[in-house]
Amino acid sequence: MSLHRRVLLIDDDTGVTRLLRRGLEETGRFLVRAAHSGQEGLREIRVFAPEIVILDMVMPDMRGSQVLASIRADPELGATKVIFLTAVAPDGDSPRLHGCECLAKPVTAGQVVRAIERVLARN
Amino acid sequence: MSTTTGLRQDTRVLRVLLLENDPTAADAIEHQLHEGGIALEGRRADSRESLLLALQEFLPDVILAAYKLPQLTAVEALAVLRQFGLRIPFILVTGDHVEEKAIECMRDGADDYVLQDNMKRLPSAVRNALERHAALRERERAEDARRASELLYRLIMETTRDLIIMTDKNGRMLYVSPSCERLLGFTPSEILRGDLFASVHPDDRARAVEIFRRSAGDQDNQTLQVRCRNREGEWRVFESVCNWVVSESHPDRAVLIFRDMTKRKQAEDEAHLAYGALERREQDLLAVLEELNQSHARLQTTQFQLMQASKMDAVGQLAAGVAHEVKNPLTVLMLGVEYLQNKLPEAPESIIETLGEMEDAIQRANTVLRGLVDFAAPNNLALADEDLNQIVERTLDLMKHEFLRAQVEVVREFEPVLPPLRLDRNKIEQVLINLFLNAVQAMKDGGTVTVRTRAADGGLGVQLEVDDTGCGIPPDKLDRVFDAFFTTKPASGGTGLGLRVVQSILELHDAGITLVNRKTGGLRATIAFRAGVKA
Fold first, then answer.
1. β pairing state of B90-94 and B62-66
2. Residue A78 forms contact with B (CB below 8 Å)
3. How far is B358 from chain A (nearest CA, A)?
4. Distance (Å) from the alpha carbon of B363 to chain A's nearest alpha carbon
5. How does strand B461-467 pair with strand B523-529?
6. Which of A78, A91, B208, B432 has its CA 20 to 30 A from that of B457?
7. Inter-chain residue contact A109 with B330, CB threshold 8 Å
């Protein structure tokens, strides 16, 4: 097993995925891939088998919550961790969506790293 | 002299009817009367027919008659007068030999007789007869008048439906009108035998006696309502008035008039009852109206809230869309700035500074977006009965670090027990946070925030005051601070949305906010929550 945590970014904004991927990879601790729609994201999950998915909520083809439902519905993918990264986060210090941690845009890569650490630490 | 009779000379012309068939004798009579100072107009008749004609046409004042004419005797003439009910002075002028007959004629209605050999007496006899007739007519007229007056009086007394009693000054009854029989069932004589106040209700008696006594000699009569018992033992209600007679011939007499008010009293009582029922009905209706008014007010409040909510809903959707579209680019900028900062830890000061300003700009833009979303968000209220003191306390707790950092002391002046309010707890917390943040920002060098609560609006509403010791708001800007995007502190990142959000949320709670600069410096925000607002 690699030391690098496998992270999949699903967000239709390529600027966000490109810069966030770079920020995460700069830390040297993550193997990052990006998908730019819900469908592409679900395909990538099966191919890439990430430990954690950073999931946008509002995308043209699917809502993030639908992507999450597909992940949860698949026994092979059931253990995949999900963190929402969205412009429409609920209020509060540490809001949650559908049982998952939720980060509000705009974020820094540092904030995403700390969220990933928190979620993985719960195992 | 014929004027020696002592009577005044008659100026008027006397119409004299002579029952005489001998013109010479007639002339002699007329002459005698002239001699006696009586101006006359004479006419002669010597038969029943000519007598009747003269009575109709001539209208004699006096008749001088021979005892017996060939076609008419004095007795017959008197019979004619009686037959027609005529009273005309009638004097017989006759000879000695018939004096006894003449006396008989006087029994039949003749006034006098004058013997032919004593004709000088004729003028005085005529005058005497005229005077006696005049006196007689006067007496008859007086008698007629008295009878008419009596009849009128009896008609009044017998017709009146009021009971009329006359008493002396001690209340002894002198007269009772017959109406008492109809009113009370007693005859006047039965009443007269008793005491004036005997049939008056015991409860009314003392007052009736008192008023009777006090009114003696008093011209102002006083009306009194008394109950009197009738023959069947029922109480009848009378309105009585006592008038004291003003008459020298009958002093110290009182006329009491009793009017039966029983039916009117009953009608009044019924009317009173009906009126009472009406009043109660009116009060019921007023209560219903009041309820309707309250319902209407609640409906208006609800409608207002719905309208506000739907407006806010539209704005909210727009804001959410804008936020989403803008936040992705902001994320890219944020990640980019972070990346460069990490990449260039040793960069020249100007680059570090530029990146820092970019980062600030991103944060500011994000704050505006958050405010926009907040501004539009309070479209659904989760209302519950809340204690405002608790909400204030929780908010102060949330913000205790802010206060500490800004060296702001918090003073609580809470009314211990407040009426519950229908509030959305989270939204009201947001209101308080915005107010407290404004207060903190107004006190750059620290200060005091005083939070005051007290019951208002008749003990059903609550008033909340937040005082600070900061810089206040310039008076010319006070009326603009609730406008969206208006801010007094652009340099320190004011979005111009805080108070707008506060006002929107309070409007949804049907509450109002006012801001005034305090005389001793600083600002006072006053929020009035109204009683019993239900959404």
1. parallel
2. no
3. 13
4. 9
5. antiparallel
6. B432
7. no
Report in angstroms the alpha-carbon separations of B20 from B17, B44, B336, B477.
9, 6, 170, 137
Nearest residue in chain A measured CA to CA from B364: A106
Å from B366 to nearest chain A CA? 8
Q: Where is B359: in which H helix or E strand? A: helix B349-376
What pLDDT is attached to residue B407? 93
What number of residues does chain B have? Answer: 535
ipTM comes to 0.85
- Amino acid type, B195: D
Question: Which three-class secondary structure string do you get for B380-410?
Answer: CCCEEEECHHHHHHHHHHHCHHHHHHCCEEE
Q: How far is CA B280 from CA B6, B269, B377, in A?
A: 91, 16, 50
- Best mutation target among B338, B342, B368 (most A Cβ atoms within 10 Å) is B338
Subunit contact B331:A13, Cβ cutoff 8 A: yes
CA B528 to CA B510: how far, in whole Å? Answer: 9
CB contact under 8 A, A106 and B333: yes
Cα A29 versus chain centre, distance: 16
B-chain residues near A16 (CB < 8 A): 328, 331-332, 335
* B488 close to B474: Cβ distance less than 8 angstroms: yes
- Strand B421-424 to strand B383-386: parallel, antiparallel, or no bridges (unpaired)? antiparallel
What torsion, rounded to 10 degrees, do the Cα atoms B499, B500, B503, B508 define? -140
3-state helix, strand, coil in chain A (%, to 5): 40, 25, 35
Chain B interface includes A102 (CB < 8 A): no
* Residue where the block lists tokens 């002396």: B168
Integer angstrom CA distances of residue B6 from A88, B3, B123, B325: 146, 7, 11, 148
Q: For B423-459, what is each residue's pLDDT tens digit?
A: 888 889 888 988 998 899 899 899 999 999 998 877 7
